[in-house]
Amino acid sequence: MVDNALNVLDLLRVTKGSLGVNEIAKQCQLTASTTCRILKTLEMAGWAFQTNDDRYIVGGKISFVTEKDNLYLALREVALYVMKEYTAKYNQAMNLLVRDGAYCTILQQSRTNKLMDYTPPLRTTLPFYACAGGKILLSELPVSLMEQIMDSCEMVPLTPYTITDPAVFRQAIREAERNGYAFDHSESVMNGTCIAVPVRNYAGAIIATLSFSGFIGVEDTNTLLPYLEPLREASEKITDRLYATWKH
User: Fold this and answer.
1) DSSP structural state of residue 18
2) Distance between terminal CA atoms of the chain?
3) Reduced to 3 states, what is the DSSP secondary structure of residue 11?
4) Which residues pair with 58 in a beta bridge?
5) CA 170 to chain centre
6) What are residue 157's phi and psi, to 5 degrees?
7) FRET pair for 82, CA 20 to 30 Å: which of 73, 94, 141, 238?
């Protein structure tokens, strides 16, 4: 049984993407029922992770430390349910952003049925200096790495309010670190505002940001502060669910 479990785990480890039970059973020359039992055991121990389409990837005790692709796959799956819950409750779109070099990508999203919606589409990329998520994702990096990222691209304005002065952006990063949240106030799109908080891994490092997005015509960003507590609550739920098996 141990040999079979190791074979399943090794298959998950070397496979790019997810595998279904029958695929795993066939490649490991096991019955489907045996494969299911092994996968459930591995999942409970944190060695495997089941996605929402009942497929499997290698789990937290391996991939969340070393394999960014699998981390993002699991993060996207887990976050969706939390984001839908809070979008329904507060009638505001939500974005989950991750950093890829000098850009931030919308990894997951929940939308409303509002007629006017300033929320960028899923998988949109934004330069780090033009969004709230960028301020947060850079806020706890080593200074040398932060400076390398800032030096890696020209800070071209997307709107008249985009921060293009490195000194001003450094100040915005320090404010994000101090406050634990950040705003995008017409910096990526005119008349659009969002408020974002960090999403952390099991060790407390920032791996993504979560925001309420698509606010239109906000004059004073402080009027969005009542959304801060539910945002932080949703972020903690994502972390807890993502690493639930890790803690056992």
Assistant:
1) -
2) 22
3) helix
4) 48
5) 23
6) -70, 140
7) 141
One-letter amino acid at 75 equals L
164 CB-contact burial (10 Å; exposed 0-12 / middle 13-18 / buried 19+): middle
Q: What's residue 248's pLDDT?
A: 41
Q: How is 144-183 classified by DSSP, letter by letter?
A: HHHHHHHHTS----SSTTS---HHHHHHHHHHHHHHS-EE
d(CA 72, CA 74): 5
Residue in the structure block whose two tokens are 């049925």: 113
Q: Which two tokens stand for residue 37?
A: 């039992």
Non-local CB neighbours of 165 within 8 Å, separated by 6+ positions: 155
**Residue listed under structure tokens 């409970």:** 44
pLDDT at residue 32 is higher than 70: yes
Question: What's the mean per-residue pLDDT of the chain?
Answer: 89
Tokens of 222: 């402080």
Compute CA distances 12 → 8, 22, 26, 68, 163, whole Å.
6, 13, 13, 15, 43
Token pair recorded at residue 164: 């293009």
Contact between 149 and 138 (Cβ < 8 Å): yes
Please, what are the domains in the chain? Answer: 2-59 (1.10.10.10), 68-242 (3.30.450.40)
Question: Token pair for residue 169?
Answer: 């952006």
Helix (H) or strand (E) holding 212: strand 206-216
pLDDT for 247: 46
Residue 113 has pLDDT above 90, yes or no: no
